[in-house]
Design brief:
heterotrimer; A alpha+beta (355); B alpha/beta (376); C mainly beta (86); B: 376 residues; 6-stranded mixed beta sheet; C: 86 residues; mainly beta; SH3 type barrels; 5-stranded antiparallel beta sheet; 36% strand
């Protein structure tokens, strides 16, 4: 209430009304339209307790165990990008969703939809990457499927991976937005935007002095370390499409809390920042594939950071903000110069601006 | 990034804000003209640093907002031609026309592509000789030389399958229209820095003199805008109404001569419709006779339905600073960024869109100025 | 409508015709090809302001210090500032 007027900064231009009639690309963007699609089409059809958790994966009781089960599809273009390819995403993406439930990833399935005319060499490259990523993540690919579609009906390769993990720790409460409390610390596991910029650098033909590589990586070691140390993990959310802003908005609105960020603390590599300047993008909304947000009680923030910084995938961890009581359902950023703005959910897809 | 990051530095921002607080003795309403400046102000929460006596009004300097709805309809119609590739800057893609936006047309199968430069569109035309490549040439004077050069190069290289859908707007006539409307509450202007990089700022002297308003050519980074506000407030407090240049690292009084030359060669000045403001004389560009072969209006004859604007939208009053967005009956109810009824809600830099999130938090809605510190 | 970004001219390709004069411009490690038709005075090592693929102004490095200089001259209230911006 003592805050000065806070104005919203909605980066992307508004979404067309008529997105109700057809699927548009923005439905896949991870922002407001994606959520609307889920709420309007999928939830009413499939609603059940597990789905209603609305978390990265479903935690399912099975006899005396708690399993986590998740699925993810990968449609990235280009298939091969600086630092990795669709195969790395396919393994790590699903492994990470399991990790975000606090589950040790165990078994994956892989379904391939291949386009007629795809070069075998490309498929080999992707499969090799999957083999290596699975090896590093200590998961087994135990079942799979392959289909081929006519030339022109697919982008080379589409992959779906589903995964099963087991929750080993005895956490008091579930890991999820419901557990976030006002006063909690908000931590990110490393610098933002590398994956999105790596992809865009190929698509837009940006020439880098030193190329920006994807941050695609397996996050389980970091989560495992936190759980083993007994850190009271309230919420974990991996940052994918829509970036940090989207993940935090989801948490803030699910739990009806305010998340307050400090712009000066949000880590962004210089090359990524510069690419965002040129393309007219905001790093808060740019995709990541090897980063997560962590919400823990304030008293455990330092301990959590110490643990995270010792693990390779999370060595860049830093606290970027706090959870507050109000205004509920909002993410607020204090800018470098000290003014405040609201970090809204993306309406559609973040479009590069020249304005 | 050099010559960018330095102008976001906190301590200097605080020093400038402190100077503004020292100078101000009474309320002033200042308009920043350019959408890019609005963007920077909102993004950095800049108003939080200002004394409550200063009200910033967001001007019509957003070419996305002020592009007439008919032009969007034309763009969509062109895009739907089976042999057309329609190119545009990203900003324009989601602007709703009477029936749909370019983005929706793309969803329905139209070949719509985002480009970063008009020369990219020209390159596409050369690479696709059997397609008609049309480019949405939208912008203020800043973008005009680039668009003019695309037409000039097309002519030079004998490219025939290229055309421009021109929607250029000129800033000084819009400012004059606002000032001459009789109920203008704006007392000082931050002129659009990059527009002036091209055009210089000679045109503002008669305006400042006639309407007795200070006009300060201002950049876009937080320090630039604070500096520009400080210069404007100083003039207002001292009773001056001059034209000054804050953005000296990029703007010269005479502007960019080679850029002006190509604009003059390719474009001529015509009256123009501003969505939300109506027709303003001598406020737009159109292709000259020699370049009319590149006019997409002629290349693609258009016989669509007349454009339909929402009767509820009070954008004219918003753009003049006479009403605040939350004073509109439709604001946040029937009109939102997801479902915009008019110009200022259409773009992320429009005043209504900028206010939208603010409007949702009721405890700040009623008396926003009081929640900022007074200068004394 | 004005997103313009400053970059350093690294290498100029003169084709003879000013309208087609291009340069490799470096934006903090990212290189793009930019048209220099509107900045005939641009040289390697200078900074230009780039908008939609064109350089629209050469940055006056002396004037770039203006806002910092003026505050000092005004004897603006100075707390312990730490580093002065360069």
């Amino acid at each position: 209430m003592a805050d000065a007027k806070i104005t919203s900064f909605n980066l992307s231009c508004p979404v067309p009304r008529v997105a109700d009639e057809r699927i548009v690309l923005a439905h896949g963007g991870g922002g407001r339209l994606t959520h609307q699609l889920i709420e309007k089409i999928f939830m009413p059809a499939f609603a059940n307790e597990a789905l209603e958790q609305r978390h990265d994966g479903a935690v399912l009781p099975l006899n005396r165990e708690r399993l986590a089960f998740t699925t993810d599809s990968f449609v990235v273009r280009p298939l091969i990008f600086p630092g990795g390819n669709i195969g790395d995403l396919a393994i790590n993406g699903t492994v990470n969703d399991l990790a975000m439930c606090g589950a040790r990833p165990l078994y994956l399935s892989a379904g391939f939809i291949l386009e007629e005319g795809l070069e075998m060499e490309t498929l080999r490259t992707v499969v090799t990457a999957m083999q290596q990523a699975a090896g590093r993540a200590r998961v087994k690919l135990v079942t799979g499927d392959t289909k081929v579609v006519d030339k022109g009906k697919g982008d080379g390769i589409f992959v779906n991976t589903s995964g099963i993990g087991v929750i080993e720790s005895n956490l008091k409460g579930p890991i999820g937005p419901a557990s976030a409390q006002p006063g909690d610390a908000v931590i990110v596991s490393g610098d933002l935007g590398r994956h999105g910029i790596a992809i865009l650098s190929v698509r837009e033909g940006l020439e880098f002095e030193s190329p920006v590589l994807t941050d695609c990586a397996n996050l389980w070691p970091a989560v495992e370390a936190l759980l083993n140390a007994g850190i009271e993990v309230h919420c974990l959310r991996d940052l994918t499409r829509g970036g940090l802003a989207t993940a935090l908005n989801e948490i803030a609105s699910d739990r009806n809390v305010c998340i307050k960020l400090q712009e000066s603390l949000v880590p962004v590599q210089e090359a990524v920042q510069n690419a965002c300047e040129i393309l007219g993008l905001d790093p808060l909304y740019v995709a990541n594939e090897g980063r997560f947000a962590l919400i823990v009680p304030a008293a455990q923030a330092d301990a959590a950071l110490n643990i995270l910084k010792k693990i390779e995938v999370s060595q860049g961890s830093v606290q970027v903000g706090t959870v507050e009581e109000s205004p509920g359902g909002t993410v607020i950023l204090q800018s470098r110069i000290g003014g405040n703005r609201v970090v809204d959910m993306l309406s559609g897809e973040q479009l590069p601006r020249i304005c | 990034m050099r010559f960018l990051s330095e102008y976001r530095e906190q301590k200097t921002a605080e020093r400038l804000a402190a100077e503004i607080h020292k100078k101000v003795t009474r309320p002033w309403t200042i308009m920043e003209v350019c959408g890019g400046q609005t963007h920077s102000i909102v993004k950095n929460g800049l108003e939080d640093l200002l004394p409550r006596e200063i009200t910033l009004v967001h001007g019509p300097g957003c070419p996305v907002c002020v592009t007439p709805i008919e032009l969007i309809d034309k763009a969509v119609a062109i895009a739907k031609h089976s042999d057309a590739i329609f190119c545009s800057f990203g900003d324009m893609l989601r602007v709703p026309g009477s029936a749909k936006s370019l983005f929706e047309a793309k969803a329905e199968g139209a070949d719509v592509r985002i480009v970063y430069s008009p020369l990219d569109a020209l390159k596409l035309a050369k690479q696709n000789p059997h397609k008609q490549v049309a480019f949405f040439a939208v912008g203020f004077e800043t973008t005009a030389p680039a668009n003019a050069m695309a037409a000039w190069q097309a002519d030079h290289d004998g490219v025939e399958n290229f055309s421009l859908l021109v929607s250029h707007a000129l800033v000084p006539p819009a400012m004059e229209a606002l000032l001459s409307s009789g109920n203008c509450v704006v007392k000082g202007f931050l002129a659009a820095g990059h527009v002036c990089t091209i055009m210089g700022f000679e045109e503002y002297f008669p305006i400042a003199a006639k309407y007795q308003v200070p006009i300060v050519v201002t950049g876009f980074e937080p320090l630039d805008i604070l500096d520009g506000i400080l210069m404007t407030v100083s003039q207002l407090e001292e009773g001056r109404h001059e034209v000054e240049n804050q953005y000296t690292r990029a703007v010269r009084r005479e502007g960019n001569r080679p850029a002006q030359k190509v604009i003059k060669e390719v474009f001529e000045i015509v009256p123009r419709q501003w969505r939300g403001l109506g027709e303003i004389p001598a406020s737009g560009f159109q292709l000259r006779a020699r370049f009319q072969k590149y006019d997409a209006n002629l290349r693609f004859p258009f016989s669509g339905e007349p454009a339909r604007e929402s009767p509820e939208c009070i954008s004219g009053m918003i753009l003049q600073g006479l009403k605040k967005p939350h004073e509109c009956a439709a604001f946040g109810v029937r009109c939102s960024p997801e479902n915009p009824l008019g110009a200022p809600m259409v773009s992320s830099e429009g005043a209504c869109a900028a206010y939208y999130q603010y409007g949702r938090r009721q405890n700040h809605l009623v008396q926003p100025e009081l929640s900022r510190p007074a200068s004394r | 409508m004005c997103l313009a970004v400053p970059g350093r001219v690294v290498e100029i390709t003169d084709t003879g015709d000013l309208a087609f004069r291009v340069a490799k411009v470096d934006f903090g490690g990212i290189r793009k090809e930019i048209n220099l038709a509107f900045t005939p005075e641009a040289e390697v090592g200078k900074y230009v302001l780039v908008h939609v693929g064109f350089a629209i102004s050469v940055i006056d490095e002396e004037e770039a210090q203006r806002v910092f200089r003026l505050l000092d001259e005004m004897g603006a209230v100075k707390e312990d500032l730490g580093e002065i911006p360069q």
